[in-house]
């Protein structure tokens, strides 16, 4: 592992932060160096600290511990991510015989320098009780590869030398802090302190020294492992046929869906994240893959993200889709039963009452397909997937060094159900569409901006399709700027082309695992009276506005069926269906057809629990700088025929509805979210979004 410390860079970094104590600026600098290395820490893992003196309001000098705050990631941490605490006071806590977690957190919060600081790390007392100025702590892959072994002590000493302290696994918090301080007093010259099944601490008088020791220790462990791996014969892999992601992922996503919140409504689907690089596929093709990889976490910090065990499903010899579905559901149910058994055993053995977390796996390993990670958000699934990728690589190396040994169930339970760990998952009611995947066609237009914005605000993951890549990209960038890029994806395709739509759905499934909300929204306009309407133009409008709706509904049905979790289709119909206008025959006829298709879909898909509803908006001109493709075509004609300018045209449409409002793309988005969140048991219905037009009342 490369030592990234650079004297010049460090000096420049400190100079750029003149208002920050120099020790703290140095702490930020080397913390970020650690955070850059995914082999050291992942997603908020690890923590660092510095001890220094500051002058308080009264002009008195006081000793302060600055330690990483909860919710900060070392890669991007800033000085504000290091809450400062009264160090002299914290040290005195060591005298206590015991300290509850709640009281410990209370002591931290009441001894902060700044009341608005984030919560200090749960390992704060470890840092406070040790004497060193700079302390770095990571869960380095190479270190846990050596600690999670029956012969960990021997391996660690061989790899890291004699200036090392080793402790068995001890729950973080007060007991670990006391044990580490006692060990340090016995071995005052140790340079590395390794916690089995957990990670490593290094220390120094300077930021450079603590960091350099970390890199040195991890590099020594890596060299030791590389030598062990090199001495092993390469294991021949099995022949594993590629698994069909378009089948496996929706079935798996359905099997992983969580029970309805509060006992009623729809099952809650989850976000999936598939990782299928060559190294992962090769690892999963090993004959011993299940025995090696369906084992416990590298470090208990991962338990809340990945659960202790991944689920291993070999789909190899399954004859057909029905058998595949039965196999996947059986394996998931067996996993859940095992998890519930573990929970019951541990709560009984420890005589504690806890609320059980859901019993679904977070990581599923499928030979021929890859790692499938799940989460209630795109981010949670990605975190679980990143951890799983590192875990597989580390367990492979652990097998070469010796034998992978997982942590006992009792310690795992303590961490998994520790209130201070669960806090990291965040609280509060989830958004109504969290975990849902939505697809909106006509993604390059104004209405898609409103629909997309409201679906994203409600928590969904969004896919936008359009035939026009440039317009699609404009909308994507706009929504990504508002909601972050990880939940907005695009698919360039022609909705009139069945094979292009099927290909797009396959790409969507490979990326997100399935689909919950389909919004056929693509439409084009053409202005001509019937006597002047060109047949080719008529067919073109029918193709996009009617055939295009048929193609996407048809392609979505197998996904809904495989998932078995219901779903929603919201057809963007039009006020024209009920209240058509002259010279707009192609558009109105096509939209009326699509509207009727929606009703047929409502009839046919009800047995699958899929609800199909229609929204009928009127006259949406634009959404910010994104124009409506429809109004680009019909606007000039409408203005000519009524002798109006663009502003006058808006005003004309506003004045013609009962409520005298301008209908916006966001209004349409609200209507889509209303149906897509299943708030009423409604299917086959039409919701006008038009300010009230009596002639267009549904009948
Ligand atoms: Zn740790």
Brief summary:
The protein has three domains: about 220 residues, Class II aldolase/adducin N-terminal domain (L-fuculose-1-phosphate Aldolase); about 180 residues, L-fuculose-1-phosphate Aldolase (3-Layer(aba) Sandwich), CATH 3.40.225; about 210 residues, NAD(P)-binding Rossmann-like Domain (Rossmann fold). It has 25 helices and 20 strands.
Describe the structure.
It is built from 25 helices and 20 strands. It is an alpha/beta fold and 699 residues long. It has three domains: 7-230, L-fuculose-1-phosphate Aldolase, CATH 3.40.225.10; 245-425, L-fuculose-1-phosphate Aldolase (3-Layer(aba) Sandwich); 437-620 and 664-688, Rossmann fold (3-Layer(aba) Sandwich). A seven-stranded mixed sheet has the order 3-2-1-4-7-6-5, sandwiched between helices. Strands 14-13-12-15-16-17-20 form a seven-stranded parallel sheet, with helices on both faces. Helix 21 links the parallel strand 15 and strand 16 (567-572). The structure holds zinc ion. The site of zinc ion has 6 residues, from loops. Zinc ion binds next to loops.
Biggest β-sheet, characterized?
Answer: 7 strands, mixed
Structural class: alpha/beta
Mean pLDDT value: 93
Radius of gyration: 30 Å
What is the percent of helical residues? 40-55%
What's the β-strand tally?
Answer: 20
CATH class of the largest domain: Alpha Beta
The end-to-end distance, rounded to whole angstroms, is 71 Å
> What is the domain tally?
3
By CATH, the superfamily of the largest domain comes out as Class II aldolase/adducin N-terminal domain
- Uncertain residue segments: none
> What spatial form do the alpha-carbon principal axes imply?
elongated
Do you know the CATH architecture of the largest domain?
A: 3-Layer(aba) Sandwich
Strand content: 5-15%
Q: Taking strands numbered 1, 2, ... along the chain, how are they ordered across the largest sheet?
A: 3-2-1-4-7-6-5
* Bound compounds: zinc ion
Helices, by number, come to 25
Report the CATH topology name of the largest domain: L-fuculose-1-phosphate Aldolase
């Amino acid at each position: 592992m490369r030592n990234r410390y650079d004297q010049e860079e460090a000096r420049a970094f400190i100079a750029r932060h003149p208002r920050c104590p120099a020790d703290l600026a140095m702490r930020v600098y080397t913390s970020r160096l650690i955070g850059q290395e995914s082999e050291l820490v992942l997603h908020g893992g690890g923590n660092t600290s510095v001890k220094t003196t500051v002058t308080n309001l009264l002009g008195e000098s006081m000793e302060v511990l600055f330690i990483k705050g909860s919710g900060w990631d070392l890669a991007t941490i800033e000085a504000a991510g290091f809450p400062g605490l009264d160090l002299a006071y914290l040290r005195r806590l060591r005298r206590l015989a015991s300290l509850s977690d709640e009281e410990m957190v209370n002591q931290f919060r009441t001894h902060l320098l700044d009341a608005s600081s984030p919560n200090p790390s749960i390992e704060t007392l470890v840092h406070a009780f040790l004497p060193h100025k700079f302390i770095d702590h990571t869960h380095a892959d190479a270190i846990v590869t050596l600690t999670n072994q029956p012969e960990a002590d021997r391996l660690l000493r061989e790899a890291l030398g004699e200036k090392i302290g080793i402790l068995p696994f001890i729950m973080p918090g007060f007991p670990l802090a006391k044990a580490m301080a006692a060990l340090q007093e016995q071995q005052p010259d140790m340079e590395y302190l390794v916690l089995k099944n957990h990670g490593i601490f290094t220390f120094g008088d300077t930021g450079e020294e603590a960091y350099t020791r970390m890199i040195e220790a991890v590099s020594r462990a890596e060299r030791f492992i590389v030598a062990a791996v090199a001495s092993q014969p390469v294991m021949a892999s099995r022949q594993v046929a590629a698994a069909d992601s378009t089948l496996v992922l929706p079935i798996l996503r359905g099997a992983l869906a969580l029970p309805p919140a509060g006992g009623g409504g729809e099952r809650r689907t989850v976000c999936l994240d598939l990782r299928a690089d060559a190294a992962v596929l090769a690892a999963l093709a090993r004959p011993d893959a299940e025995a090696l990889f369906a084992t416990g976490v590298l470090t208990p910090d991962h338990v809340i993200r990945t659960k202790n065990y991944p689920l291993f499903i070999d789909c190899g010899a399954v004859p057909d889709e029905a058998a595949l579905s039965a196999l996947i559901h059986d394996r998931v149910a067996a996993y859940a039963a095992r998890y519930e058994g573990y929970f019951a055993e541990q709560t009984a053995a420890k005589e504690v009452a806890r609320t059980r977390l859901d019993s679904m796996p977070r990581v599923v390993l499928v030979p021929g397909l890859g790692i499938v990670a799940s989460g209630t958000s795109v981010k949670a699934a990605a975190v679980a997937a990143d951890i799983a990728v590192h875990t597989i690589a580390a367990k492979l190396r652990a097998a070469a060094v010796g034998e992978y040994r997982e942590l006992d169930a009792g310690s795992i339970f303590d961490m998994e159900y520790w209130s201070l760990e669960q806090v990291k998952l965040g609280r509060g009611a989830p958004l109504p569409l969290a975990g849902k995947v939505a697809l909106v066609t006509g993604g390059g237009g104004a209405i898609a901006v409103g629909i997309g914005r409201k679906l994203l605000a409600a928590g969904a993951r969004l896919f936008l399709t359009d035939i026009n890549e440039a317009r699609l990209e404009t909308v994507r960038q706009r929504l990504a700027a508002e909601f972050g890029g990880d939940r907005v994806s695009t698919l360039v395709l022609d909705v009139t082309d069945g094979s292009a739509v099927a290909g797009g759905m396959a790409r969507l499934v490979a990326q997100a695992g399935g689909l919950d909300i389909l919004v056929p929204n693509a439409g084009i306009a053409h202005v001509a009276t019937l006597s002047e309407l060109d047949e080719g133009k008529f067919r073109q409008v029918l193709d996009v506005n009617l055939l295009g709706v048929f193609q996407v509904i048809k392609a979505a049905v197998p996904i809904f069926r495989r998932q078995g979790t219901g779903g929603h289709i919201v057809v963007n119909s039009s006020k024209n269906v009920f209240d058509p206008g002259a010279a707009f025959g192609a558009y109105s006829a096509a939209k009326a057809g699509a509207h009727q298709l929606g009703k047929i879909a409502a009839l046919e898909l009800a047995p699958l629990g899929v609800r199909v509803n229609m929204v009928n908006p009127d006259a949406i001109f634009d959404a910010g700088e994104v124009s409506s493709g429809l109004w680009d075509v019909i606007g000039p004609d409408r203005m000519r025929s009524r002798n109006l300018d663009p502003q006058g045209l808006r005003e004309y449409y506003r004045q013609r509805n009962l409520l005298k409002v301008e209908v916006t793309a966001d209004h349409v988005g609200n209507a889509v979210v209303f149906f897509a969140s299943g708030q009423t048991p409604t299917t086959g219905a039409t919701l006008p979004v038009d300010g009230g037009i009596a002639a267009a009342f549904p009948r």
